[in-house]
Write a structure and sequence with these properties.
The chain is mainly beta and 331 residues long. Helices cover 7% and strands 42% of the residues.
Length: 331
């Protein structure tokens, strides 16, 4: 029997993963008019351990296939499902769609210059019109890439198998490995990374912590601890996903007890933003999360949910005592 490398195995595996396409994505406005159709809207003032979310649910998009990657950029939503990339507005209307190279997509990043797709052992870059501009392979034969982020002229990729962060130029030239002085413990595909205000934030999920690095790879600290209470990370490996607000707050997404929380850039817990019932009742998986203006977007399984910051709910709940002029409060 012919031996194959892990990289080749991962590519083969990714090429045969099946699922529904994003074609036919539909939007469902949460309102009283839909109750006759059997839909049950989530209460905007959901109570969970005396928790009132500052967000009210607005709309849900349902895709016939599982969402592999999700991003928000310049007023548009980008979704990858079954070798197709679909661009939508905030209400689920399809603006454009194009096919992408076969394979499993782990993560996506978008800016004005292009659309970056992360595969288990490679990175693909597309133009906004769907042209494949460039592609580069993992710098290690045993890599299993999990998440990535764009930071200035560089791309930072987390590698689950090698337990490190790989730094590349935008053209795909390898720069360096970044390791944790605490040792990364990554039991599963829970190795999120995000960039804000010149800092990299990376989940060390087996330790229930988020670590902070400079873009040169210098370790600058950590925050988080294991626990089920608000401000702690529960389960075997959390947080799963990270994102940042334009003003530098860190947003974490957990699995097991699905919830989305807000931290300051130096790791101080601010508040719980969404609890499990508002995300998807009965769903134990983590939700990808993005922030844009006064809206919060989540993607889990085959659904995208849109929430809107509500000053009245915020005044009655977790944000009432917070004096920080954060990006979440911008309307």
């Amino acid at each position: 029997m012919e031996n194959i490398s892990r990289k080749k195995f991962l590519r083969t595996l990714g090429s045969v993963v099946t699922g529904g396409t994003i074609a036919g994505v539909s939007g469902v406005i949460i309102s009283k008019n839909h109750l006759k159709d059997g839909l049950t809207p989530v209460s905007a003032g959901e109570q969970q351990d005396d928790f009132v979310s500052p967000y009210k649910p607005v709309v849900v998009f349902t895709s016939p296939g599982n969402i592999e990657a999700f991003e928000q950029h310049d007023g548009r939503l980008y979704v990858v499902s079954e070798n197709k990339l679909t661009v939508m507005d905030d209400y689920g209307k399809t603006l454009s769609r194009f096919g992408i190279k076969e394979g499993l997509t782990r993560d996506m990043a978008v800016d004005a210059d292009g659309i970056y797709l992360l595969r288990p052992a490679s990175v693909l870059v597309y133009s906004h019109s769907g042209e494949l501009l460039r592609e580069w392979n993992a710098c290690s034969e045993l890599s299993d890439y999990c998440s990535f982020t764009l930071a200035g002229d560089f791309v930072f990729v987390t590698d689950k198998d090698n337990k490190n962060i790989c730094k590349y130029t935008r053209e795909g030239v390898f720069v360096k490995f970044i390791g944790s002085p605490n040792r990364f413990i990554i039991p599963s595909l829970t190795f999120g990374i995000a960039y804000a205000d010149g800092k990299l934030y990376c989940s060390n999920s087996g330790r229930h912590q988020v670590e902070i690095y400079s873009t040169d790879g210098e370790y600058e600290g950590k925050f988080g601890a294991a626990g089920g209470r608000q401000g702690y990370f529960c389960g075997c490996c959390n947080p799963v996903y990270l994102t940042c607000t334009p003003t530098g707050e860190i947003i974490t997404s957990e699995k097991g007890n699905p919830r989305i929380s807000c931290y300051s850039g130096d790791g101080k817990f601010r508040s719980l933003l969404l609890g499990g019932k508002m995300l998807d009742e009965g769903n134990t998986a983590a939700n990808r999360v993005k922030i844009a203006g006064n809206k919060l977007f989540t993607a889990g399984k085959d659904k995208i949910r849109v929430y809107e910051y509500d000053p009245q709910l915020a005044a009655a709940g977790v944000c009432s005592g917070c004096g920080v002029d954060c990006g979440l409060k911008k309307t």
